[in-house]
Amino acid sequence: MIKAVDIRKSFGEQEVLKGVSATFEKGKTNLIIGLSGAGKTVFLKLLVGLIAPTSGEIWYGETDFLKLGKQERTDIRREVGMLFQGNALFDSMTVEENVRFPLDMFSKYSKKEKDLQVDKCLERVNLVGSNKKLPGEISGGMQKRVGIARAIILDPKYLFCDEPNSGLDPKTSILIDELIREITVDNNMTTIINTHDMNSVMEIGDKIILLHQGELAWVGNKKDVMTSDNETLQNFIFASPFLQRLRKAYNTR
């Protein structure tokens, strides 16, 4: 579990986050949604420790992350997997070299142990036989799966995903969503996903946190979305006439 308590973040005169508190649950896909400029990316960076809040608390389980020293924070970060929006793969490295990179950086495994772990993770994301390929030789969806394999190579307790479906077609996006959810449940991880993808919201939204103008506007799950009377949520989710008709049909069943 990760818990944020009264998080505030300002850049100069601009207050981006205005006292946001939220709990992200273990073994569930926790989604952060909101319009551009709502503070989602800043909030995600704060949670993962890339930037520091102006005030507030961030707890990893029973540990107050912001009160830790440099080495203790490094130890926590070794329990964190990160899936970046643009995959962030090294173009000159093969698939297996990209996936093995965190092991080379943070583990003391032998080469044989690393190879076995890489193969295990590639099998988990359905990329058996792709070890020697370069990122430029595989599709965008396969690149995303390489990113997932790299993110879970150290058996993390926490998984952060920044727009995991960005640039993917709808069918591939569904496959990536399903894969992230399966890994979350199987490994009992605390997974936090920053997304604009409404399919992700409706398919894997075990817990959904809506930010609006730097404030927490709504908390619920994918079932609550269809019946909530929260105006900010309705304006965000049901912006298109098609989705408005879908919601109306759902509520009259």
In short:
The protein contains ten helices and ten strands. The protein is of the alpha/beta class and 253 residues long. The protein has a single domain, classed as Rossmann fold (3-Layer(aba) Sandwich), CATH 3.40.50.300.
Task: Outline the fold blueprint.
Blueprint: E1 2-11, E2 14-24, E3 29-33, H1 40-48, E4 55-60, E5 63-64, H2 70-77, E6 80-83, H3 95-106, H4 111-124, H5 140-152, E7 158-162, H6 170-187, E8 190-194, H7 198-204, E9 207-212, E10 215-220, H8 222-227, H9 231-237, H10 241-251
Parallel strand pairs: 3-8, 3-9, 6-7, 7-8
Antiparallel strand pairs: 1-2, 1-4, 4-5, 9-10
Helix pairs in contact: 3-4, 3-5, 4-5, 5-6, 6-7
Report on this structure:
- With 253 residues, this protein is of the alpha/beta class.
- The chain has one domain: P-loop containing nucleotide triphosphate hydrolases (Rossmann fold).
- It has ten helices and ten strands.
- The strands form two sheets. A six-stranded mixed β-sheet has the order 6-7-8-3-9-10.
- A hairpin with a 2-residue loop joins strand 1 and strand 2.
- It is globular.
- It starts with a strand and ends with a helix.
